[in-house]
Amino acid sequence: MKQQQTITDIKGSFELRNGVHMPYLGLGTYQSDNDQEVVNAVKNALQIGYRHIDTAAAYKNEVGVGKGIRESGIDRSDIFLVTKVWNTDQGYEETLKAFNASLERLGVDYLDLYLVHWPVAGKFKETWRALEHLYAQKKIRAIGVSNFLKHHLEELIEDCEVMPMVNQMEFHPHLVQQDLINFCADKGIQYESWSPFMQGKVFELDFCADLAKKYNKSVAQIILRYNLQKGIVAIPKSVHAKRISANADIFDFELSEADIAFLDSLETGERSGPDPDNFNF
């Protein structure tokens, strides 16, 4: 199991294997429109105190994310900015081009974290080689993967020069994948969650409502606190200022070990997103 990490406040972080500090709570921007919607979401989050913004080339909102960062008034060096290389851009040379295109859209000259979005068979190793090159050039402070199951990681680790520092996975009470969490912890790979709310389904579950009542918190706050106490970085997506603020109000309570174990026990293997072993995009 991952060693218990200290959870302090919205600006707190977990330390990656190379010493870079990754804020453990961030703003996700999946399905946030590349217009004033995402600009405002990013500005609101940064002004509330978030220091971690997650996007991807596939979200087609990098321009808006970059604009939100510039308009926030927060210094770029204080922000942990993440984007991802999309599947159709995978391969060595293609990834280098895709990286430069992302930087241009974002209006920045480096990234804090760059991820391989999905494990495209026959390509992700060459894509990773490109990330290693960019990391060696200090154009990225940390490199990692997304949606990589254990066998994908094992294949990548076989002959990589730099170990992945992060693995961003679908994670929620119905898809805990504790074996994968443990594997990543053993390898020094920081686990990160996407879709922590099961694309909204978590709000319909009675047991979450019961926990919310017990702790006098919202279901979203319970789930995000659950992520952090398991040592998992969380990037809840929202475009609403009140919700972005509420998602950060998770530092004045602590879930009991029994309640964390209870949430873990709800594993069903149900995915709200695609299966990393069976995707066709």
TrEMBL record:
Family per similarity comment: Belongs to the aldo/keto reductase family.
Catalytic residue positions: 59
PANTHER family listed in its UniProt record: 2,5-DIKETO-D-GLUCONIC ACID REDUCTASE (PTHR43827), NADP-DEPENDENT OXIDOREDUCTASE DOMAIN-CONTAINING PROTEIN (PTHR43827:SF3)
Keyword flag 4Fe-4S: no
One annotated GO molecular function: oxidoreductase activity, acting on the CH-OH group of donors, NAD or NADP as acceptor
Residues that coordinate or bind substrate: 117
A Pfam cross-reference name: Aldo_ket_red
CDD domains assigned: AKR_AKR5G1-3
InterPro entries given in the database record: AKR, AKR5G, Aldo/ket_reductase_CS, NAD(P)_OxRdtase_dom_sf, NADP_OxRdtase_dom
Source organism superkingdom: Bacteria
Domain NADP-dependent oxidoreductase, residue spans: 25-266
Protein name: Aldo/keto reductase
Organism annotation: Maribacter ulvicola
Keywords attached to this entry: NADP, Oxidoreductase
Marked site positions, Lowers pKa of active site Tyr: 84
